Structures are given as structure tokens and as C-alpha cells.
Amino acid sequence: METRAIRNKRFQLHEMDGHVHWRSFARDVGFGLTAQQKWLPPKYFYDERGSQLYEQICALPEYYLYRAELEILCTYAAEIHAEIAHLTLVEFGSGNASKTRHLLAAYERAGQPFRYCPVDISREVLRDTANRLLDEYSHIEIRAMHTDFARQPEVIQAFQLEKKAVAFLGSTLGNFTPEESVKFLERTAAIMGPDDVFLLGIDLKKSPAILVPAYDDSQGVTAAFNRNVLRRINSELGGRFDPQSFEHLAVYNAARGRIEMHLRSRLAQQVPIAKIEQAISFNKDETIHTESSYKYTADEVRNLGCGANLVLHRTWSDARGYFLVALFRSR
Ligand code: AVJ
To answer: How many whole angstroms separate alpha carbon 284 and alpha carbon 188?
Structure first.
């Protein structure tokens, strides 16, 4: 635990352990790379280097998602804060909180103590972010949780909060299939009280001419982010991937309403991975499906909520209508 944080007692880290251990990584890699359509869970992008690359992605001109949501949170921070009524803010996939901080600024301006509970899969990012927020906001108290929350939103019950606002921003829900999304939201709604709110930030459906470049930028940052999962298999599982022998691919699958990222093998090859005691064979042009990023319409967002016992209360959008922040209450 961070020493300064212990001293000032405004920071606590819940270490829910295990979940991001190399054994689970090995299991998921062994499972995904032996499937008919090879695939890897996108959560493994986010080691320290991957988190840095994601921050670089957010600064790319093509990656409108970040700035659109930032615009919403900046413009409507006071309105959103008023709806949330100063409840403790629990955030799934908080990352560096660079957008959330605008909402936290509204809490700070209220001049009353408040609590922020970020939940993230990356311990380094949680610690650094918490330290910066503690420096910046005098009224903040932070209870952070290091865990892979996707399978189990109930982990946030460990915070033992009476009332809460649960935030899931950055279109991270888009990484789940619609079925997984409804399940995740339903399980979250089940642990919400009558005064609790759920704040969802999600990317909207739009022309592939805008969508695709956001996932295939001209500087190749997204390509490096995509290949980072291979580097990670090399360093953590004794893999022998040559990341450059895989081409970065981003396509919009209109039928499924999702951007797909793949890594396509430029040649037929065999890649040994020591810790799973296997060599993986690739045909030329065979792909590993590394990420799906689902896009929704505003109506579909409302319906996601309906299927999960969440009632849509209010929405905010950016000037171009690219992104949606939606506030739900539990039924
Ligand atoms: C963090 C899941 C929202 O899907 O847009 C960015 C991740 N992948 N560029 C997204 C990502 C490629 C991002 N999310």
C-alpha cells in the first residue's frame, strides 16, 4: 500500500488478488488461442505499457470517444453532480480518471467531504491516480479496489456503502457482448438501493468512416496497443511471438454493431508459449480476434437498461452526438 496514503488516512486499497495472476492469464491464452477463431480477452491489453498506449490513443485526433465524453463531463458536471446528489462515487474501470476528475471537481466545489471508490484491473494506474487526486482535491477520500470486476460487479459490496452512484464510463461496457452487458447491469442493479444511481458512458453508432479510423489511426498507436498483448504473452508466459509478424486490423461489423480488432498473421508460423506448454500454429492470414467494441443507439441504451431492471432517467450528449452519458435508477 502507498505509504503517503497510509499517513494521511485518506486512501485505502482493497486488494482482491488472484484475478490478474499469471495462471489466469495462461488459462485464458491457452483457451483462446486453441479455439477455432483464435481470440484473446481485451482486458489483457492493460499492463503498464498497455495503459500508457491507451492514454496515447485518447490523445489521437481520430479517437473521438475520449474527447466527446470529456466534453460531456466538463459541460454538464454541475448537472450530473446535482442528479447524483453528492453520493459516494464508485467507478468501474476508472483508469487514470482523467475524465472522471471533472465530475470530482464538481464534488470538490460543493465544499463537502466526499468519497471516490475507483475499481480497476491495473494496480499501478490506481495508485498513481489516487495520489494525484489526493493532492488536488482536499475534500476527497479514496477507497480503491484492485480487481478484475467484469465477472463479478458484486465485488463493490466490499466498500460497504450505504448509498452510492456507480459509474461505468469510457464505453468500457462496449467490450462486453450485449448479453454480457445486460447480465452485468442486472447484477449491478441488484445491489443498488432505491436512492442509488448508475452512470453509463457509451459510444454511439455512427458512420464506419468515423468509427474505423478511431481504431486504425495513422500513427499506428492502436496497432502497437493491439500488438502489446503479444509482447505481454512473451514476457509473462514465455511466448515467442514476433509482434511485427502480425498485422493490425480494425473492421466495423455492421450486423453485430461492433468494431472488431484482430491481429492477422502475415505468414504461416508456429509460436511456442512455454507456460502453456504448447506451440500455436497460424495459417497465413489467420487472425486472433483481440477486441470487440460494441456501439449502441440511444434507444438501444435504454433497452439495455430495461433488460437489466434499470430505468433511464436522463442522458447527456456531446455537440456532435457521438457519445452518450446516461443516468439510470434501479427499478
Ligand atoms: C477502453 C474499451 C473503451 O473500445 O474504444 C481503444 C479500447 N481499443 N482503441 C474502446 C480501445 C482500441 C476502448 N475501450
So the answer is: 43
